[in-house]
Fold these 3 entries.
Entry 1:
Amino acid sequence: MAVCSAVSASTEGMALKELQHASGTVFCDGAIRGSAVHVSHLSPEHSIIATAAHVLVHAQTRQPFKSCFYRPANARFSSVGFAQISTQATGMTLKDSLRNSELDWAFVALKRKLAIPALRLSLRGGPAHEPSRIQALTLVRYQGDHEAMRIDDNCAEVHSEYLENTKLLLHNCAAGPGVSGAPLIDPVTHGLVGIHGGTLSLTTQVTDKPSQFQHTKILQARAIDQELIDALARFSRSLP
């Protein structure tokens, strides 16, 4: 069966609304710490969200927050407490920012089942993704000035001649407070292809001027790969 890539305005609007409902915020120790997304998995009894691991720990002390909740669509009266966390940013260090970015993901089981859409973890561009292919992206993030989830659907994957890392998804989507942990979504399949982590600062020598350096900042997400798909399956099976 052929699948048409064009969609009606009403169908597209409905799809974007579902993406917004599947996303939300992480609220820990009295403040919003970042964004997250409800993901589909093997166990029908539990709800699991995906976010960035650093969202769950204090930036200075590196200690985990004491009390965390997930707010679907940032609805404070729908807050659900955390039941179990797959990782608490263990192994992340302050010295190796690239390695930190590779480890910056976490799955969280919630204390009750959510009746909201869930996104499937997907390899970007499909299993045969070509490095040279540009992946269109949709980002759903928390926007602090409106205290609501916002959809940015006019962004894409970018490539850098200075950084090639299959575990990272470089992109030009919007950034700002609360965007850490936000889902990067394939706008065609609505699969989750990345979890936004932050900004990488790259220092490189200027061509033909070895004594001069240029500094570049680039937005990065932890790409969904087979490692994360397998990790979610293991975490789902481990839940009581």
Entry 2:
Amino acid sequence: MLSIFRKRQRGQLTNRELKKILTAIKNGGQPCFVGFTLSEAQAAKIKEALGGTREAYYRLIVEGHTVRR
């Protein structure tokens, strides 16, 4: 089924939003991804920003919002 909405309007994070989230993670925050989906590349960047800490946050929140293609 084709969508009439652009990718950004379907909940995909933009690069600007991703940079804000990465900054929040590096400052110790745990941002919420309600209404957003992540690509595998974005999830990899978030995992790198977490630096091996907060593995439960990554598995429950980030992987739950990642679209596998």
Entry 3:
Amino acid sequence: MYSDKCVEFNCIQRAHQNTLENYPMFLTFLLLGGLQFPKLSAVFGLIYLAGRVVYAHGYYTFNPGNRNRGAFGYIGFFGLLINTVIFGLTSSGFI
């Protein structure tokens, strides 16, 4: 799956694969959280996506430390997670 000779290709492929691994959770949280908090979920979604773009560009520099610049995207991800949990608790009658 990875190339032994082309480090640049490996970095780009790993950044892409990492994004694909997180994408289903992101879409699920965006959908479910957005049912109760549409505007807030949209803002959190944009923060997450901006973080993924910065993460990918940092990874494309072939310096592993640069990918940490996109860590702010997790603010959006965890915001969506909290929205989803609140939606679930509200829908089930616990709140």
